[in-house]
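Q: What would this complex look like in 3D?
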Amino acid sequence: MKTRREFLRNTGLIALTPLVPSFLEELAHAAPAQADPRILVIVELEGGNDGINTVVPFADPAYARSRPNLRLKPEEVLKIDQQVGFNPSMRPMADLLGAGRLAIVQGVGYPNPNRSHFESMRIWQTARLNPARDELGWIGSALDALPQHQARAGPDALYVGDAERPEALSASHAETAAITSIEDLQVRLPGPQADSLDATEQDTAGYVHRSVLRAYGTARDLSRDHTVKRAGNPPYPATKLGTQLEVVSQIIKSGAATRVYFVSQGSYDTHVAQLPRHESLLAELSSAIKAFMDDLRGSGLSERVLLMTFSEFGRRVAENGSLGTDHGAAAPVFLAGESVKPGLFGKTPGLSDLSDGDLRASIDFRRVYATLLRDWLKITPGEAIAAFEPMPLIK
Amino acid sequence: MTGAWQTFKPTDTQPWDLRRVVHLHRSAGFAATWDQVQQDLRDGPDASVDRLLQGKSSAVMPAAKFEGLSQQLAEGAVVSDDPERLKAWWFFRMLFTPDPLGERLALMWHNHFATSNAKVMDLGAMHRQNEVFRKLGRARFGDLLHAMLHDAALLTWLDAPENRKNHGNENLGRELMEIFTIGVGNFTEDDVKQSARALTGLSALDGEFRYVPEWHDSSEKTILAQTQTFDADSLCDLLTKHPATSRRIAWRLCETFLGEGVVSDAQISELASGLHERELDIGWGVETVLRSQLFHSDANIGSHVIGPSQFLVGAARAMQMSDPPPGTLLLSDWSRRLGQDLLYPPNVGGWAEGSSWLTTRGVINRANFAVALVRGELNRAGTAPDLAAIAHRAGHGATTPDALLFFNELLLGGRLPQSRLDPIAKQAGDSPADGVALLLATPEAQLA
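A: Here is my prediction, written as structure tokens for the whole assembly.
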């Protein structure tokens, strides 16, 4: 393990001193020698990703029957084994798998699947099958269990994107923040914000006070200058997801103490004319993840970072009447990074053994969460996840 | 109606004061100028709410001139095919409308029937939908829902043209029940499939509604335990009469006009019953909420996080920035940075509203907007609002502490105590403009 100081040195921050904002410079000189904490990056595929058209079960005879118009031919897919292969637009993901940096967990879902976008998304985000109205997120409540860091160097979790902060990051006292770009951290307000505010009340006003104070805290703690932006970075694809992952990379490189990042890609709700749209989504996803992984490797950070994708549900096995697919159930989850055990995990779902027209889940998503918390972030899961057995996904 | 929903009557402990007038305008519209506030103070709550309901609460521009300009701007935006111009048109309306409540309701319905041009890709259709929100925003909900089921933008957004007899597409059927009417927990997966069948035949072509009889499945369907040859009209009827729909509309009105945690379940139920008895008359619901004791109660004032457009437009309107007015393209871009890209909601569920606006990004950009506003960066001429002149006209001096006293009243109804104003005055030094920017960046300024 490198110390943070070595890491900053290696990333060239010290060498770049004239361009670096003063606080980053201070960090580079003063960062204490400590084990580098591990980081989790979550990529949400919003809208319900068609797992069958992602990791294609080309050898299942029921595949061609269920998808007369949408099916991909065996020679088109990027074969993973004799049963399944990647969608042809996912070459960068196939490369990651070939390089031993990708794990694919098949058939991930939960009992009695809910086919509402919003309800199923809440289930995934809270790790509860019947989330209460103000349920905490699975990540937020896990971060609540960590000791509060003494010297602030960024929020515990950060959402990067242009939608609302995801429920997964909702926490009772862990700090979670949401930005779209580095520019969102540049406060133009004259003078410091009043830190003396009494922000302890439990009503809406108190919540709003705390939100405002936290926002200024986050802005102060994270980068105030984006001149480090391009320093030595390999190029990212000029897509929304590529840009978001590049922001995540910038903030990781700045030495922030943030443990969990969350980005989102939409829209996978492919009810109509699915093939071209889905193909471009998967291409965007794959190339952005590959660029991110390569960037981290080039910065000596790849052993500290693990990335997970998820979607609220897969899609129905049988195609619909408009060359698309309707809401379904189980789907694959990807884990990417230097520290994952590469390969296929879980049973390949059979397309003729269906439940209400949908794939049966063989892996409960909370087992994946349990793995990420226990074996990666080294956080003891709370009661929503504690009962689930981790999987052997981490080296 | 009982208790909380009874009409507010001022008392010695709950007087009709500046705080209540400013709260009324910030919650129900887009804030008010000092003159409007003074007029409402004199006239009392009944007349003030009357003016809002009648669309006569603001006189920035004569109504006829306003509508003429609005039409020109909308047509220009649609012809240009530039979505930024259509968003800017909406900001023009919010800034200059004589009927701020109508625009607030249009925003509410845009969030309820959240349709994104990202998929519709037709500004003419988006504009027509938007005008329906204005025209039927206070009508019976059934009329609005019926119009939406015949609205090209919404139908395109939810794949209705692909939902045909024997080739179902569930998108519209599901969201119709889950988001627009009865809500989660009140229907089954089979109800979704059968509703989709009832909605076959509804389609859109070239941005216009089109009904295709041969695509319609006219056989019997069983929806919510009722069996008949349902079509869009009879399904719309069934859902409108369902008590869960009244409750959802009651909830939507409370979300729009009341603070978080202010209204109880029992109070929402009572409002829902009242709506149900009146065939979901939205206008009645809005009037009931805006006149209510609950709306004007101490518990409600200062507990409602206002949305991006209310924050942006409210600041500009209260400071009478009409000559030159703020650039509407700029306002629209600020709204995006604050988290609300109009005409592009994140998904059919719309924006979450309330405290979820206050992310790091939302908070920092609200502060940065305040700085841009007082420094005159919102119009091409670089003209900053003449803060000293506004304060002077209201009889206040031009020093920073004096100006802060006044703008605390104008913008926040005087909700910031002197102990909060003092450090702001100190920080702002001899710049009242900096003081106003700091004032707008306070937590209190995010709340109505």
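A: To summarize the key features: Chain A touches chain B through 57 residues (CB under 8 Å). Residues 274-298 of chain A form the longest helix (25 residues).
Q: Very helpful, thank you.
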